[in-house]
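I am still learning, so would you mind making up any protein sequence you like and the tokens describing how it folds?
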Amino acid sequence: MPRTTPTRKGKRFLPDLAEPFRSILLILVIVPPGVIGIGALCIGLLFAAEGMGRSLTFEEAFNGVLAVLMALFFLPLCHAGTYRWFWHIEKKRQAGHFLSGAAMPDAFSEPTEPPPAVPISLGQRTVYALLYLAAIGLLLFVYLPLGHQAVLQGFIARFSSGRASAGSLATLLTAWLPLLGGMAVVMLALEGDMKKIRSGLLDPTETLRLQGRVEWLGAFVTAFAMTSLLCFMFGAMIARYLG
């Protein structure tokens, strides 16, 4: 429901259309340059491939550009937003919000504050950087070649009985398996940290550091799964409608 604003006499209420107009304006400002930029990158990639004597179709170039953009830009942006949301939920939990029986809010359905400044050691930063390199490399290896999309779709078509089951299997393979598998690894790796946090015997700085590591890794796995799903969806649409 749009918000309403009272008139001077206080008898009538008019819808506040500032937010819808702001969203439309944002779309108009971002989408056209983004589409033009992606198109230019695809054309540039086609010319570069031709100059190197390689045969590259527009579909392959389009999929390649989208996969690179998703891996290099969407993944860190999604990770930052998810990390902020995870800290928002953690703060509500620490405040006892869920002890009163309140339901968990839908993802990204509430305004959030910036996450706390968490102390991070040099070794931890190195591990984070290596995780990013591994995640980006895996995304590009799986989704950059358009032929890999054909392999995935062939596997899904073989083991599904219809469009609905094919969509469920695709989501399972590209999103739920990375998410659940990654979360299982994180929980096992950080089991000791969680026990230390729950003990309440650590000083606040160390507790914040360990909690920050838990939230960072959980958000990272979630962002990777979301990026993987979107990469697959874009590639599947390109292969289906442009191939």
Residues 204-241 form the longest helix (38 residues). The helical segments are 18-51, 58-94, 122-143, 146-158, 163-189, 191-199, 204-241. Strands lie at 4-6, 13-15. Residues 1-15 have pLDDT under 50 and may be disordered.
